[in-house]
Specification:
The complex is a heterodimer. Helix content of chain A is about 40%, strand content about 15%. Chain A contains eleven helices and nine strands. In chain A, helix 5 crosses helix 6. Classes of the chains: A alpha/beta, B alpha/beta. At the A-B interface, helix 1 and helix 11 of A face loops of B.
């Protein structure tokens, strides 16, 4: 049978179309598994996985841990806040110490772009990137596309607009790669200050008028303003941002057609989307979270099957 | 590579009817019994038997499910290839039911071992039976024997039993292939 073309999941950039299809097909089976009365399979009972998080996370960390446990892997968790990193230990030393406890796979979130790639070059384990700075967040993009496929039947030919802070968003970059690979049309929309200069070179269009963008699209992926990464002022006030780039029910109802609303979480309710939009029937935000477990099970299963 | 016909279409048909009768004898109206075809190829046997039981023996309702055992196999990471899953479709609980696991060829018994674990995700059956269309004698790795067997075959390890179905492969026939 087909197998992944990669040994690590460092970014969507390194995957091909067949890889994505294989991950989705495998996730379909795992989605059926996690809806059983007993939601666990014994596949990975001899695999140990370390979740190493140098940055805060709720959803991603829980989702990975749940996926690993439902595959029967042994799991160890590590958060930088409570660790020897604070005492000055380097990344390679930290990871190699963990690996000498016979760990087969490392799921890592790190504030520095490229940290996963760096690690994959220097340590002997399968690496899954759970977000590296403003670079990539591949499992998020996979679950986003998977959720679009589930809702609309297919990703190819669909029109997706990514709204918000494109400049600091790893979700945006991974989504652009994933959507383009599957043949979707992509626009990005946000304040000019938060759109990277050469973003069009990735094959996406830029739109600064939110209403126009929403009228064009089938799916709107609303990103969070990443206040923790905003080193300077990119827009005058949050209130002004919301007025120009926030989606509320009135705006949504005034569109020509019914669009699908997505959000990678965590939501800043009342900033990028209002509560009634987040909780409306057009929103698939909670489906994204459910699909996240199935997608991560698929990724881990497929990568683990390559560990010899 | 040489191949000979082990069972022809007529012989398969006779055997399926006998197996259907044996099932009927033990399970009567199938009210408390479910048939589970093991993916990928046990499902054809399960569907054929269901058809015969319904159309020729007047059984009104039979719960039939398909069980994929990929994630329960004991050879994960032991071969060269990634194990590919197929669809599981069991729309009912097996709690307190009599389960009949159905497969086309019983060989080492490892698939059945995996199926016995997998079926527990759908409840606790009151009992589990095994039906195999072809039972390859003397090649078991585990202490597993069928309750219903179509034909017993003495095949050596280098040989392969290939079961073909009209709906999938164009005709009903079973070959013994010498690799």
């Amino acid at each position: 049978m087909a197998e992944l073309s990669v040994k690590h999941l460092l970014g969507i950039k390194y995957l091909n179309e067949k890889d994505i299809q294989l991950i989705f097909d495998t996730a379909d089976h795992f989605k059926e598994v996690i809806n059983r009365s007993i939601k666990k399979v014994p596949s990975l009972r001899d695999i140990t996985i370390a979740n190493i998080f140098f940055e805060n996370s709720t959803r991603t960390k829980l989702s990975f841990e749940l996926a690993e446990k439902r595959l029967s892997a042994d799991v160890i968790n590590f958060s930088a806040g409570q660790s020897s990193v604070k005492k000055g230990e380097t990344l390679i030393d930290t990871v190699n110490n963990i690996l000498s406890m016979k760990v087969d796979m490392v799921v890592m979130r790190h504030p520095n772009p490229g940290s996963g790639i760096f690690l994959a070059k220097h340590v002997n384990a399968s690496i899954v990137n759970a977000g590296d700075g403003a670079h990539e967040h591949p499992t998020q993009a996979l679950l986003d596309s998977y959720s679009i496929r589930e809702k609309l039947g297919d990703v190819a030919g669909k029109k997706v607009v990514i709204v918000g802070d494109i400049l600091h968003s790893r979700v945006a970059l991974s989504n652009i790669f994933a959507l383009k690979l599957q043949g979707a049309k992509v626009k990005v929309c946000g304040p000019k200050t938060l759109l990277p200069k050469y973003i069009e070179s990735l094959g996406v269009e830029v739109e600064t008028d939110l209403r126009k963008a929403l009228n064009w699209c089938d799916v709107a992926n609303m990103l969070r303003i990443q206040n923790e990464r905003l080193d300077i002022s990119y827009f005058p006030t949050t209130r002004e941002y919301t007025q120009q780039f926030g989606v509320n029910k009135t705006l949504l109802n005034s569109l020509d057609k019914e669009i699908v609303i997505m959000h990678p979480g965590p939501i800043n309710r009342g900033v990028e989307i209002t509560s009634d939009v987040a909780d409306s029937k057009q929103s698939i935000i909670l489906n994204q979270v459910e699909n996240g477990v199935a997608i991560r099970m698929a990724v881990i299963y497929l990568l683990a099957s390559k560990i010899k | 590579m040489s191949q000979k016909v082990l069972l022809s279409s007529e012989e398969i048909n006779i055997i399926l009817h006998r197996l259907a009768c044996q099932l009927l004898e033990n399970h009567l109206d199938f009210e408390h019994t479910v048939l589970i075809g093991i993916q990928p190829r046990g499902t054809f046997v399960a569907e054929r038997l269901t058809k015969i039981l319904k159309e020729e023996y007047g059984v009104k309702h039979i719960d039939v499910g398909f069980l994929d055992i990929t994630f329960y196999r004991d050879d994960f990471r032991r071969g060269d290839k990634t194990l590919a899953a197929t669809k599981t479709k069991i729309d009912f609980l097996v709690e307190d039911k009599k389960v009949v696991l159905i497969d086309d060829v019983l060989y080492t018994g490892r698939s059945i071992r995996a199926a016995l674990t997998a079926i527990q995700s759908f409840g606790r059956p009151s009992e589990i039976e095994l039906l195999a269309l072809i039972d390859r004698r003397f090649s078991r790795h585990l202490p597993i024997q069928p309750n219903y067997r179509g034909r017993q075959v003495d095949a050596i390890n280098e040989e392969k039993v290939k079961v073909m179905w009209k709906e999938n492969d164009g005709k009903d026939v079973i070959y013994l292939i010498n690799k």
